[in-house]
Amino acid sequence: MSPDISVVIPLYNKGPYIARALDSVLAQTFQDFEVIVVDDGSTDGGAEMVGGFGDPRVRLIRQENRGVSAARNRGIEAARAEVVAFLDADDEWMPRHLEALMRLRDTFPRAGAYGTAYLLQENDSTVRVPPFSADIPPEPWEGLLPNYYRDAIRGTPPISSSIVAVPRRILDEMGGFDTGAWYGEDVDLWGRIALKYPIAFTWDGMGIYHKEAANRACNKKEPIREHVFVTSARNALQAGEVPPELREDLLEYVASRQIQIACRNLEAGRPDLARDNLKGCKTRYLWRSKYSALFWAYVPSDMYLVLKSHTVTSALLTGVSKIKKRAAKQLRFKSQTGGALK
């Protein structure tokens, strides 16, 4: 019999983390699953670690290096369940994650994707809940997002590649992940789904994003001609496929992706591409971010990188200074009162 849900994990040189990811899947309260790990030409022994798990529900597929989208699409093709969940090899899930996703599936069968909130692990000691949109009701709420594009602009994106499940029929309808993009390919898929279907969300069963992990694709500093979803949205608009009630929020969301890519191109030393990204950027609400990026796009790249580094360093020093002042104030209070700090 087919499992209720298939878990697809793309693997490329994440040997130090893959065991943690698989352990978090095997520890789920919901156990009717299969795990498909697609090794995309790793050279660090991660695939061998997967083979050593010995759980019959864990399958390993090997392929030559073709990128994360091709790896995920290969996993989708091999999936036997009607729902496919995704997990990056350097992230992990809380024990009720699959249980929460399957509950969303049963409660909101018309939804195009199901996602949970998540935690950001920034270093060994810092774990935090990112600032989701205030339009999303506070926990323990779960339901259909009020407006996916607006929520993604006003806060941390509510759907991401390690905390989402999608019905297999919708993945087939969308054609899977775009294999021509190395950045934003997941954002592109969620955005295309949201054009046609509601998105379900829950605060229960969180995932954990490990921002401190090495070899993360989002940390690459390479130029990008255009965000892949900007292209998808333009095609949908030209084809008349955007519902009128979504048009304004979609255009603002597109502007946010254009600004994001412009900033990445600045960091990659390509202000010319950043100017191209911003040339067609039309926004009513993000104009401060747009014109800030446009200003830096006319500053020589070397100067921008130096000033940006100085700004980050100054912010860190300011934060350390505030911590020191707070600690000193607490110590003075303790010495004056003779009491223990709580």
UniProtKB/TrEMBL annotation:
<dbReference type="InterPro" id="IPR029044">
    <property type="entry name" value="Nucleotide-diphossugar_trans"/>
</dbReference>
<dbReference type="InterPro" id="IPR050834">
    <property type="entry name" value="Glycosyltransf_2"/>
</dbReference>
<feature type="domain" description="Glycosyltransferase 2-like">
    <location>
        <begin position="6"/>
        <end position="126"/>
    </location>
</feature>
<dbReference type="InterPro" id="IPR001173">
    <property type="entry name" value="Glyco_trans_2-like"/>
</dbReference>
<dbReference type="Pfam" id="PF00535">
    <property type="entry name" value="Glycos_transf_2"/>
</dbReference>
<protein>
    <submittedName>
        <fullName>Glycosyltransferase family 2 protein</fullName>
    </submittedName>
</protein>
